[in-house]
Amino acid sequence: MAKQYETVIGLEVHVELATKTKIFCGCSTAFGGAPNTHTCPVCTGMPGSLPVLNKKVLEYAVAVGLATNCTITRYCKFDRKNYFYPDNPQNYQISQLYLPICRDGGVEIETAAGKKTVGIHEIHMEEDAGKLIHDEWEDCSLVDYNRSGVPLIEIVSEPDMRSAEEVIAYLEKLRMMIQYLGASDCKLQEGSMRADVNLSVREAGAAGFGTRTEMKNLNSFRAITNAIEGERERQIELLEAGKKVVQETRRWDDAKGESYAMRSKEDAQDYRYFPDPDLVPVAVSDEWLAQIKAAQPEFRTEKMARYQAEYDIPDYDIEIITASKRMADLFEETVKLCGQPKKVSNWLMGETLRLLKEKGMEPEDIRFSPEHLAGLIRLTDEKAINSTVAKEVFEMMFEEDIDPEKYVEEKGLKTVSDEGALRRAVEDVISANPKSVEDYRNGKEKAIGFLVGQTMKAMKGKAEPGMVNRLLKELL
Amino acid sequence: MANIISDETIEYVGILAKLELSEEEKEAAKKDMGRMLDYIDKLGELDTEGVEPMSHVFAVQNVFREDVVTNGDMREEMLQNAPGEKDGMFMVPRTFE
Amino acid sequence: MDLRKLTAAGLAAKIKAKEVSVMQAVQTVFDVMEEWEGLYHCYVTVDREAVLRKAEEIQRCIGSGELTGPLAGVPVAVKDNLCTKGLLTTCSSKILGNFIPTYTAEAVRNLEKAGALVIGKTNMDEFAMGSTTETSAYGVTRNPWDADRVPGGSSGGSAAAVAAEECFAALGSDTGGSIRQPASFCGVVGMKPTYGTVSRYGLIAYGSSLDQIGPIAKDVTDCAVLLEAIASHDEKDSTSVPRKDTDFTSALTEDVQGMRIGIPRDYFGSGLDADVAEAVRGAAGVLAEKGAVVEEFDLSLVEYAVPAYYTIAAAEASSNLERFDGIKYGYRTGEYAGLHHMYKKSRSEGFGAEVKRRIMLGSFVLSSGYYDAYYLKALKVKALIKKAFDRAFSNYDLILGPVAPTTAPKLGESLTDPVKMYLGDIYTIAVNLAGLPAVSLPCGKDAAGLPVGLQLIGDCFQEKTVIRAAYTYEKARGEFGTPFAESGSVTVPEGKEG
What we know:
B: Histone, subunit A; flat; C: 11 strands
């Protein structure tokens, strides 16, 4: 009988923090600048430059640590991790090895298999590297240091996960918490959240761990799932063939569905960590910790309870809306503006989710503002537009965050509420469709539907169907 | 000499430090490093049990910057020092296989 | 009036009184350079045209009353490891042979704010690694007292330039004695302030936890004036210490009455040259006559400072110098096969032997399996050394001793044996490990007529005590003289005449 294997997985999750400036200098972290325009002597490793810690980075790191039940290190330091690579301008990365800011936490996850806690070994602060672009034409690489020095936290889990499903649940939980904190938008595709997977297999029931590999370049949940399955298979095949798993770093190629070792004889993997003499220790006082604690936002469980008490919307809606901080914020702000929780919820649960799914987007990618959603609701409340037009306008809003009131005005989409005009249109339809009129008069109730449709068509959709119905019945 | 530095060690340190030494330099480096380590071994005479390693002399702590953008674009000046440049970026030997 | 003989403060006063113009001061320096720079080679870079332009501008600002700083119009030299915007900054290394910084070091900016005119960048040991200025990639600097001898190092160019009157004062940097030892060898005054007093922003790092910038000048007064000008709390340097007591010139008083001065007995053991010992003891006697209470004591741990220092400095240097990789600035080798080969070739060709030696050692002591035994051990010994000084300063206001075991050695004598060369730093190095302020000032000459330096070490942040004692001694000592003083000629090595 074939042996049964258990997969053991630990994650190293890098999260880019949502600060305005880099971790050690006053350069902007904004995306989209021309190459190397968000750089200075510090983040390009110019001789003589020195780092100074961005206070906000520490506060975010502590906030994430508190949210994940970690112990906050009251006296922490930065260390240098030495390795040569062109995206690393100093050829050392400032990170934390000996005294990371957070330790010994954990988060609870829920899968089909039930609830469990995934332990967090530590969270440390560090700087991101620059970007390397390959230039085929010149057969060289080009370096852009705009991302160099962008603050990261690395969340290192314990090897507590046993399946891809648990990994995804853990990542989703982390992402939601961090988004709730406003510490990062955590977008996998854009790299503001990155997960490296440490995986080993062992015979079911074995006490010790097998040899693990680390997999990098996983930029979607799908890639993570595929990589876990692929690596599990690869390791089991090796073991079954009587071979050994080599401890190494592997790069996952999601297009090919396979990984390959990132080995080089020039990679000694000996980082010569030592305390960075250019930075001073950070001491987190009781008062400061209390301040950060007090500033922690309302998390999901509290939010769900409040929604149940405050808003008359179904529990199912509450669950969906609070699953994303962006969605919840949008809901609350829009309700504040229009005072109609049920209608706001309907737009989010209906059209918004539909479009997100259709376009493969995350709630964090939503662009329309609460002001505009409230405006749209106002337009429908006033019956200024009908529901078909409203959906059309919403799609435009979803695409480009247009102002619905202006848009409706400019495009002339307002429902014609002038009864005279509508009456004339209905009269025209009646005289143009004697057959249907006769059918209706002969008791064919359904014929009126056709007449309503014709009227709507004549009005280019800008009529209230109920009103058309009433007028038709009246005139017939 | 108590510390004998092997060829492998010199080779390994060369990889870490990104230095390529000639045979002659390697021999000199083995000798120099051995002598220096013999000398440094003198520290072993001291009992440092329970002594906290001191990386900073003074207890200066909590030096921060506020999260405010202060730097503008200085790309052109910076790139003037680059041995290789293209499209506003630093040109390096290819890093991808 | 011979402008060459003026101190920086003296010249500033004359410029302020409009007795001397900035242009005259600059011309004086250029004249001396014309005469002696070919022999001494104190500078790596002097941009004469830029200096002349700047001199005119400074003169104009002085005339309009905009510039009233204590060093207004005074030509000063700056060690070539301090970044100067738009001006070549090489660290005396081939690897930075074409590096033009995009910004100016904070200390240099402060000096310029005080009105000083930076006249050029001085030669040094490559990346400040050395005690003789012989490891420079751009040729040796010679000692103005005897051109066959080294000026000391690593700030040898700055010390020699002051001694040779090729500037009125200079900045150096001191990681293990690199200001004090060359000042001692060149018969000038050099001061290393308490760690954190002068911003390191723009100082190309050697050993970050030990490096401090400080003045090298003709007398104690100039040292105090310069230090007062460059000291600042800089938000760009996390290790910069906010201080309110940087009015160092207020300590220029002749008063050591009751000052308790300790002489470490362990500084006067074997290895110390007899002439040096005698001159230093003589200086202690002078201070005792002035009312100081001088006694000997055991500092302890003296022989452990050098190995601890070289472990820490080499480790930090190995990391600090990783950024020199042929990508962003500086030297890149001509031909290479791929990225890692480019790194290795550029660095191997760009760095000199002593720099490579320390990078190798530093990489080794930090490498896996050795970190605890070497690096961590050295940090613990550093803690013990700091404690020994704390104990000493609970009994004394000041520690007095030699700067170096000998006077300036002959060129080419030191580099053959690195361990022996490192031992020459035995009296200066512990001061950097403990972050203390210390001054080196001339206190006599040896049998060959070479200057001997006296070192006065203060407790942390007690620069004023150091300055007060140094000033008192200097006044009691009287004129020390310059290499040119007596005969108007200097010792010129054979075959170097003209």
